[in-house]
Amino acid sequence: MNPLELFRRNQKVMMTGLILLAMFAFVVLPAVSQYMRSSGPGMTDPVLAEFEGVSLNASRVSAFTRNHYSTVQYLRKLAQLTISRGGTPEIFTVDPQTQQIQSVGIQQTPSDELSIRTLQFATLAQQKGLELDDTSIRSWLDRFTNGLITERQRYSLLRSETNNQMGEYQLLDMLRKQLLAQLYFQAANASVSIGGMPLLSPLDHWTNFLKLNQQATINAYGVLVNDFVPKTNANPSESSVVALYEAGKDRFPNNQSPEPGFRRRESASFEYLLADLQSFRDAAAEKLTEEEIRAEYDRRKAGGAFVLPDDVITEPSVTEPATTEPSEGQPTGDQPESDTPAAEPEMKSGDASEKTSDETPAPEEKPAGAEKTAEMEGDDTANEKVAEEKVAEEAAQKRAMQVGSFANEIEAASKLDEQPANETADGEGKAEADSEETSAEETEDNASEKPATGEESAEEEAPSDKQPAEGEAVDEEDQASRVGERAVQLVAMQADASTEGEQAPAEADQATAAEPETTDEPAAEKADAPATEESRYQPFEDVRDQIVESMVEEPARQARDEALAKARVVMKKYFSQRALTDGDESAEPPPRPNLEALAKDLGLTHRQIGPHTIVSLENEPINDSVDESTALTRQAIPFAVMMFGLGEQVIKQPKFRPIDTVDLGAERHYLTWKTDETEAYTPELDDIRDEVVQAIRIKEARVLAEQEAKAIAKQISEGAKLEDLVPEDRQDNFYQEVGPFSWYNMVGFGQFSIGNVPELDSVGPDFMKAVFTAEDDEAVVSANQPERVYYVVQRQSLLPTSKDLQAIFKQPGQRTMAMFMPSEEATEIQQGFYDTIDEETGFIRYQPEGF
């Protein structure tokens, strides 16, 4: 063989080896790695269920559950892409309000239990002749997308959404099994439902309507099962002990079930640091000085904050009697502000008219003429109106004469420049005089309709009030000023008379009485004062806490986040160091950090709790927290699920890995790690013999408790009263006027729950059936759901009556919800279907150790 051929042959061998090595690296090694990860060192692949001679191993079930979850997520993305391209839902459904994808045509809640049932039903469907080939599945996907997404685009999206973990074969296989199982269940369920609606007879529909709408009120006495345990056999036979242990060794304890369970749930202990945002706010607030808070108030006020609305600004003049009752000559709210300076000398002169105004309220004051007329008529109320009209007419005529006589004085006064306010008053006086001359007849008519007031009496006496005292020199300029002032007053009062004369007498009196309280002058005078300006803002004391809260909010959040970040670094460092030495017995583990001391330094709270199961953890506040990364989404993962896992959907956290959870409502942030854990297991009989014996005695005590309850019910039927039959030492177990409550409550569209009776212990369907089917005044006996209490029940009322409900039932909108509630017979048929299938296929469900 020449060297060239030898070289070529060696090259072929090398290429073949490289190909085989690549196949091993990319095909065999991933499968082995996945198997090792699922099984772990020293672990086997346990069998979870068997049917028709087929064994479902844990690895197969887990892989199916994982692919089911990936398929649901992929179909959601596919549905969203279809909607974005203008498609309409044909297989999937969309919420019309939120546009969220509601269903994708297959089961949407992957779990190991559902995977087992899906594989079981798909196998049975194929045995019954139901087939779905690849062409049918592709056609289903075309309908799903309205033909708007090509096959290549679909599988490209599948690879990107599943990170290349699923291809066309895996997708078609998953959809085939899901649709076959769904078709088989629908075929078997055809006798109890059509589409999504249960098949109901008219009687079933009416019965469901009563369960939702009729409410009962009862008296009840609870006979406790534990009271009769001492009366049972403390040493049951060995055969009964073994039989009960075998029946319950694979069941977890359930406080809502009467069946005993002896299997122990997985448990864990936890250590966490709590960062309460309010504590950081309080710490930041303590560092603030009063000067800083006051400065922040002034800064915000200068920027336009804390301004009170106009309708809540308090006018100081309203609450001061001295400023709300104007004296003679003081302008009212109807007069312009320019009249005020001219009227002030009259307010301070102390004349007789001012005293009259102070002593008697203006709206109630009667002019002298009116009093004389009343005396002449002998205070005859029948002529009072005539007298008032006569006096008003005389007053109007006198005012007209006075305006004419003072015309020259007004002109002379307007030439004086010493008092600028008089110039304004003179100009207004002339305008009013001209208006008076052109509408004298109208003014006289209006004045005759307006009753006389104290203001008019003061107006008549005004000329005589301005005479100087004896021996006092008369200043011509002052006299001219006084003349101008009197003229302004007369013109202003004439304008008031002309406008108010159009009102009815009663309305005019009311307006006159209200004038001192609504005058604009005091508010206008005090608007420039510092006190009034300050009153436009909220006082510092009222907004101090608000300012402090806003000042400390951001610093508190920053301080909290910094404290958590420092603690997180310490905890992550320990987790990483521990991971390097885990499994190496020769390596010395790293020292565990002292979180209690760390929490004290950082202002956090330190706690250690456990051991807890996923059930007992419900009593801890941290159980209300959720994964921080999903807290603001609809798929928020609760703390317990993160720690204990949820099948393939949520992998449980390993020991000492720090995780962040938040309780948004309480503003609490938790930094937690798991310090210890114990896998689920079933203890040996000898280890829990006392527990098994106690379960046997409880079963025997139930019989005695039921007998006691029935004996009490019999006495009631013979005429005794329930309250008289309750022992003195059991009065706490007697409940009066419980309710009203209904048989079922609707908790969502097509979703129902048993009626809520919080006073009693865990009542169930049997209790509701006994209450609502009992005859009036009949005493009935029923146990609660876990059968630890037997209730003697006497119904007091059942409302609304059947006659009233019949009228409501005739309205289609009122009975719609009852159409979605399946009947008891349908539920029994469905359960019987499962039992029959399990029996025919030899279905066995195992619960291996650690699962």
Write out key terms for the chains shown.
851 residues, 31 helices, single chain, 5-stranded antiparallel β-sheet, 18 strands, alpha+beta, 52% helix
Give a written overview of the molecule:
This protein is an alpha+beta fold. It folds into 5 domains: 43 residues; 148 residues, no CATH class; 198 residues, no CATH class; 146 residues; 192 residues, no CATH class. It has 31 helices and 18 strands. Strand 14 and strand 15 form a beta hairpin. The chain is globular. About 24% of the residues have low confidence.
Summary of the model, kept short:
This protein is α+β, with helices and mostly antiparallel strands and 851 residues long.
List the helices and strands and how they pair.
Elements: H1 3-39, E1 47-51, E2 54-57, H2 58-84, E3 93-94, E4 101-103, H3 112-127, H4 134-144, H5 151-161, H6 168-188, E5 193-194, E6 197-198, H7 202-213, E7 215-224, H8 238-248, E8 267-276, H9 277-286, H10 290-302, H11 321-324, H12 340-348, H13 352-359, H14 368-376, H15 384-405, H16 407-414, H17 420-438, H18 440-449, H19 454-465, H20 476-500, H21 505-518, H22 521-526, H23 530-534, H24 540-581, H25 595-602, E9 605-613, E10 626-627, H26 639-644, E11 659-663, E12 668-678, H27 689-717, H28 722-725, E13 734-742, E14 744-748, E15 751-754, H29 765-773, E16 779-783, E17 789-799, H30 802-809, H31 824-841, E18 844-845
Antiparallel strand pairs: 1-2, 1-18, 3-4, 5-6, 7-13, 7-17, 8-9, 8-12, 10-11, 11-12, 14-15, 16-17
